Amino acid sequence: MFISMFGAVESGVIYAIMALGVYLTFRVLDFPDLTVDGSFVTGAAVASLSIVNGVPPVFATLLALLAGFAAGCITGLLHTKGKVNALLSGILMMTALYSINLRILGSPTVSMLHETTVFDQLNSIWSLTGIDQVLNGMLSMFGLDRFPKTWGIVLIMLIVTLLIKLATDYYLKTEVGLALRAIGDNKKMIRSLSANTDNLTIAGVGLSNGLVALSGALIGQLGGFADVNMGIGMIVVGLASVIIGEALFGTKTIARATLAVIGGAIIYRIIVTLALRVDFLETGDMKMITAVIVIFALVGPRILQARKEKKRRLQKRQQLSAQSGGNHHA
Amino acid sequence: MLKIANISVTFNEGTLDEKKALNGIDLEMERGDFVTVIGSNGAGKSTLMNVISGNILPDVGDVLIDGKQVVHLPEYKRSAFIGRVFQDPMAGTAPSMTIEENLAMAYSRDKKRKLKIGVTKKRKDIFREHLGTLNLGLEDRLSAKVGLLSGGERQALSLMMATFTEPNILLLDEHTAALDPSRAELITSLTEKVVRESGLTTLMVTHNMQQALDLGNRLIMMDKGQIIFEANGEAKKELTVERLLQEFQRIRGEQFEDDRVVLG
User: Fold this and answer.
1) Is any Cβ of chain A less than 8 angstroms from the Cβ of B117?
2) How far is CA B108 from the centre of its chain?
3) Residue B228 needs a FRET pair 20 to 30 A away by CA distance; which of A135, A196, A257, B193 works?
């Protein structure tokens, strides 16, 4: 149980980078961008191809980020300059990317099991620190006898993800970032304040998909393979993370909202892991589970709110009738 | 400051719905001129505003700001030197962002936006000082979301955002029409004050004849895409609503028709 939860958090922290990308388009730009399903794989594909061809893993991962950025920019171009509907431009790009990803990979699946990934490098440095022994020692005091392979990935990736979060927070508070946020809030207004909304949208969608591809590259290296189908439903996973996070942790400020998205991504992984432990559910049911989670997170708060409101009105009516009843007697 | 020469705009050209919205408009405004624009239904007042702001490209004609041809500049580039307040109080501000963030965006209007923090301490002081002049208490609510403000407060904020970088041209498109009378009066007096103090070159469309007479040093009346009447300086001061209606009837030979007009 602990090991599978640990794995959920480990991958959740990496998927959180993808969720931050989805947050940028879906919430900040108000641009439902479906490119994600394709650009996630593009990230994994570019990273695996580069690594297999001897490119240093860190560099390969950065190349993946750039590839995702380029893909996102094309979606942005289609929407702004080509005046194609936002959803449709994402779908078109996602479809095109499927073929492109297959070309990059050369075959539907590419294995990196015999290659050195960014995590192998990370682990070789990490094992020198001896932190694993300390943490596992603490765990054994709680009576655990099976320990995670390494704490390095989850801790280092947590730091990396938090750094990306801080950079995103900063960016959204800059003059450029404010204008970007205004595009999702009041496009007419920010245009009348002399902002080039087209270029900002293109850059924003590009940045978002850069993060998605980075996440894909890391997930690919974590699992040791890149698969042309690994991105299917990724946008829904991203949305689930954003919506769960917002519902649980709130959105009062930008810093809070981005933290919520990271929390949402981790909790989503935990929910899926728990769901898969239920006997009658199979791996193939995961997409269904994801969809149900999103629907629940979207509709749930609204139903709760409506019930609260109904109760409040009922109370008010009772109060009033009690008062007027008293008057009649007097 | 602003020169409009021989501007014509036709909508749906070559169809049954063809409409000449503007027909050879000429208008020249000196620095500090405050022109109020009135006109009957479909006179082309809004089209004129949109041609100046770059929302609509004219078929022919020139728009010069400070001697510079801007007719081919896209809207966002032109808005570096044009401040605008729209009729809809919701249109001029971003509701889910804070007052200080909205002001910071307006502050960047005539500068290149950089990767520097938008709301700095220094800027907050500037914002607070400017907001204080509105007397609405907004200076104490810098970090409140704009969506929480009332329509009047939002319009006052829009007006400030449009003016505090002192743009070359200020365009007011019926910016008090959607407000209740007391709020409209507040915005009108704020407008008068800011235009006078900053000496802004202003063009204001209004349906309120009395407002058109009270504000500004020049008045133009439009009908069917043309400027049909103009009164400047002393001549404008002596005008009354009745005189304006008579003038219209004399020139056009028909009653002034505007289903939204407020005679004042």
Assistant:
1) yes
2) 20
3) B193
